[in-house]
Amino acid sequence: MDDLPPDSSYRTYFEQSPVGVFVANERGEFLDVNDRGCELVGYSREQLLSMNVADLVGSRGVAAFERLGETGRVEAEVALTRADGRVVEVSLDAVALDEGDYIASVTDISQRKDDERRLVQYEHAVEQASDLIAAADREYTLLFANRRYRQFHDLSDGDVGTVTLPELLGSATFEAIESKLEMVLDGAPLRDEIGRTAADGTDRTLDVQYYPLERDDGAVFGIVATMRDVTEQERRRRQLTQFELAIESSNDWMAAVDTDLNLLFANQGFRSFHGLDASDVRGTPLSDVLDDSAFDFVRSRVATLRAGESLTFEHQTAVEGERIPVRSVVYPLEDDDGEILGFVAALQDISELKDRERQLHVLDRVLRHNVRTTMNVVAGYADQIRTVSADAEVGEYARTIIDHSEQLNEMVAKEREITKILSDPPRTTRIDLTREVAAITSEFERAHPEAVISTEGPETNVEVRAGALGRALRELVRNAVVHADRERPVVEIRTSVTPETVDVRVVDENRAIPEMEQEVLLKQAEIEPLVHGSGLGLWLVHLIVDRADGTLSFEANEPRGNVVGIHVPNAEDA
Fold it and tell me: Which SMART domains match (predicted)?
């Protein structure tokens, strides 16, 4: 190349070429290079003329140079290492010259390769996106659709580029959005929420964002849309709206606090009761709302709430200077991952309940005192008559009066127990049922030696969580013994255990318990003048079992008698 005259057209091209031009001999030694080539690799011409092709190219470039000697021409993309250590990607077009040398045109394609890589990454991201992405031209022919969109509409790859939106969506659906699409084609981005039926037949809610597709000169040639399936979010939003309406309209005062015991929200009842404006709720310390004693109690139980347990307690709070009783239930507020975000409280004004409890206690004391006093007087006079009268028939009448007086006094005693359970339910504790049954059996065998009492059940200890279950069992055994119509009452206590429940059945051979009594206790009949329960003992049993989250059952014992069952949750399952 140096032998060419300065004014040679070849020499002019060599010097002024917009791409790098390199000349090398068959050994790979550089013989000439133009200015663009020097700029490309960052070496001066003098430096390059002392270098070899292998100094600039990697193994791929060396292999291309070797092929050049065999074929006379090579086109390839190789990487050159610049003087500053940076690697530049180039397109190489090399040919053999007559004198055994080689000339190569080298073009920097780094930007194009970067663009291609970004395009591949972009296409991959779009294709793998969870959103539905598609584009259409001005005639609404589908230009592009990613995998998620194709799956949603059950499209094949071949459908893209041929199917139109009216064909894909149906005329009715397309007409509903056509005016919006025209707005986008006029250059206005648009957001919309639409309902669509997917190919699998499910109804979905899509959040759609439309954008105009523009050429470099700004001309709009189509529409691109990204559609996010927000069906679940919409369902949750509706649920949240329903929850908010339910909470706002609740008769309870409801509020939530964060883990620092600052209010997050409070319903209308809570706000009105505590004199809070809706705008003042969030961030208000709970200590500014509750009485000191109630706040101290909640704060002392934060560790319990953080452990996932609920908290129920009664306290008093002041409203317009008047203190009223309140029952509060507090439970953890958790997110979907189980992380505790705070605590929710539901408060009830129990003023009326407390008034009724006081009335119940007053009636209990009056009834107990008056009835027992009166019946003791009646029984005393009856006993006096029986003592002084020589008439056997009068004596029998007096004995009947005494018996009924004792029954009525016994009924009053049971009424007192029922009142106590209603107003002050027994504390739920673990009970060793096996030991309790053994104690009851021994107790009644001593008190009623004429009775035959047997037990059947597991040999191992059986535990239940119930407050006064032993009292209920004693009442059932007592009824079976005392109300027996045979000289030797026969009673069996059967205990069985399932993974969910512990079942205790008291079996006797007495007259059947009236169906009316059973229906009232099992809440299958209302208490009416002609339908009522007369046995307070069974009412006492029913209340105890109900307070233990259990159930009562009645069956016939063949050939004669009753099977009264108590079924309570297994303590191991609780």
Answer: HATPase_c (SM00387), PAC (SM00086), PAS (SM00091)
